[in-house]
């Protein structure tokens, strides 16, 4: 009787336990060992696949320069008495920038004018005498030697007059050069001297950046240099800003690599610039090598990386073979793994060549640790969108991801 009671109690407990398992499908049980309908669902977030434009890019830093920078060098030497402009001032062509002490040059000009006046009188006198000697010679009232002497005197006076005129021209130019003037219209980007300094010929006093336009020069390794073509579009971002600050095009490139550095020069002409772009600013130059429209794009964060170790018996080396996949939601309840073939990678945006359909819902959060066929519970979906093109002048612009290390490592694989 006692043994029957124990057996009945154990049977009741077993039935009660099985009943509890069946009432909670998330806990599994003996009948659901290893998952199946009783597997716990993983909470995930999904996103639509973006269909849009993506670009393969080359990035490098360079300084913005004016396309034409003019050095202003004084043509006379003396103390500077006045400085009329400072850094950043916009000047007109012909505007006086500085004044050099002119007393010495004023005296030289007065002396040169006096010499010209004296030489002119001498020329008139000797010209009259030479004409008189010619008349006397015609009537045999003067000898040939007297005529020759008069001619020589006249020619000497004429030469002295021409020399005096040349000296006057130089003295006038020197006097005028005591006013240092702007040769072009532009912005003062360098003021190398101050009032009281000694201005000397051959020493730069100012630099003026003409307002004709800006450019940026970058230097690229061979592979990137070969990929860059004239006419390709470029986005420029100031080093202290996250948004695009200017746009331009590749206008020139060096015909060969530098023998010392192995780098090739590329010149970018800026076609549209915001207020933060001016000569001297360091910018990141983003050259669009290849642009694809209507590309299928997913965020890099959605990718699941698989790494396979491959041993090469011939070389006795170990290689790492990487492949990438994503999980898509099937019926909002099951995760399905899709192996991918990747294309262009632009920051956190990656082109998918094969493996997805445009209407697939990709899992962007919670995909790590999922297995193919795993149960999922889809939370509120998120939208993955490309950065919008916004006007530069408003302070907003098309932004690119800063996750360069991740993008570059994926590109190399």
Automatic annotation (TrEMBL):
<dbReference type="GO" id="GO:1990281">
    <property type="term" value="C:efflux pump complex"/>
</dbReference>
<dbReference type="Pfam" id="PF25917">
    <property type="entry name" value="BSH_RND"/>
</dbReference>
<comment type="similarity">
    <text>Belongs to the membrane fusion protein (MFP) (TC 8.A.1) family.</text>
</comment>
<dbReference type="GO" id="GO:0015562">
    <property type="term" value="F:efflux transmembrane transporter activity"/>
</dbReference>
<feature type="region of interest" description="Disordered">
    <location>
        <begin position="384"/>
        <end position="413"/>
    </location>
</feature>
<dbReference type="InterPro" id="IPR058625">
    <property type="entry name" value="MdtA-like_BSH"/>
</dbReference>
<protein>
    <submittedName>
        <fullName>RND family efflux transporter, MFP subunit</fullName>
    </submittedName>
</protein>
<feature type="domain" description="Multidrug resistance protein MdtA-like barrel-sandwich hybrid">
    <location>
        <begin position="68"/>
        <end position="208"/>
    </location>
</feature>
<dbReference type="InterPro" id="IPR006143">
    <property type="entry name" value="RND_pump_MFP"/>
</dbReference>
<feature type="compositionally biased region" description="Polar residues">
    <location>
        <begin position="399"/>
        <end position="413"/>
    </location>
</feature>
């Amino acid at each position: 009787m006692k043994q029957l009671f124990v057996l009945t109690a154990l049977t009741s407990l077993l039935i009660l336990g099985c009943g509890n398992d069946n009432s909670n499908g998330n806990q599994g049980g003996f009948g659901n060992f290893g998952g199946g309908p009783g597997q716990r669902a993983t909470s995930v977030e999904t996103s639509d696949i973006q269909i849009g434009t993506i670009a393969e890019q080359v990035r490098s830093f360079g300084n913005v320069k004016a396309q034409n920078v003019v050095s202003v060098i004084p043509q006379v030497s003396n103390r500077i008495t006045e400085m009329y402009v400072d850094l950043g001032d916009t000047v007109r062509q012909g505007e006086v920038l500085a004044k050099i002490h002119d007393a010495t040059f004023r005296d030289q000009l007065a002396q040169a004018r006096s010499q010209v006046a004296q030489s002119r009188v001498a020329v008139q006198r000797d010209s009259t005498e030479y004409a008189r000697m010619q008349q006397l010679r015609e009537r045999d009232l003067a000898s040939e030697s007297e005529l020759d002497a008069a001619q020589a005197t006249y020619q000497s006076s004429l030469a002295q007059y021409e020399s005096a005129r040349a000296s006057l021209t130089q003295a006038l130019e020197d006097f005028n050069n005591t006013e240092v003037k702007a040769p072009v219209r532009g912005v003062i980007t360098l003021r190398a001297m101050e009032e009281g300094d000694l201005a000397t010929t051959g020493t730069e006093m100012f630099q003026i950046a003409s307002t004709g336009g800006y450019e940026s020069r970058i230097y690229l390794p061979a592979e990137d240099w070969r990929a860059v073509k004239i006419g390709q579009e470029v986005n420029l971002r100031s080093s202290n800003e996250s948004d695009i600050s200017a746009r331009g095009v590749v206008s020139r490139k060096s015909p060969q690599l530098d023998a010392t550095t192995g780098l090739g020069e590329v010149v970018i002409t800026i076609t549209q610039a915001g207020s933060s772009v001016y000569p001297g600013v360091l910018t990141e130059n983003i050259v669009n090598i290849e642009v694809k429209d209507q590309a299928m794009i997913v965020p890099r964060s959605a990718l699941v990386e698989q790494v396979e170790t491959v041993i090469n018996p011939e070389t006795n080396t170990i290689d790492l073979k990487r492949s990438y996949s994503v999980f898509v939601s099937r019926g909002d309840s099951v995760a399905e793994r899709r192996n991918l073939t990747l294309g262009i990678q632009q920051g956190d945006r990656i082109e998918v060549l094969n493996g997805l359909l445009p209407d697939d819902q990709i899992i962007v959060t919670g995909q790590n640790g999922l297995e193919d066929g795993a149960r999922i519970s889809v939370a509120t979906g998120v939208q993955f969108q490309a950065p919008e093109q916004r006007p530069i002048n408003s302070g907003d612009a098309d932004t690119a991801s800063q996750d360069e290390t991740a993008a570059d490592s994926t590109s190399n694989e």
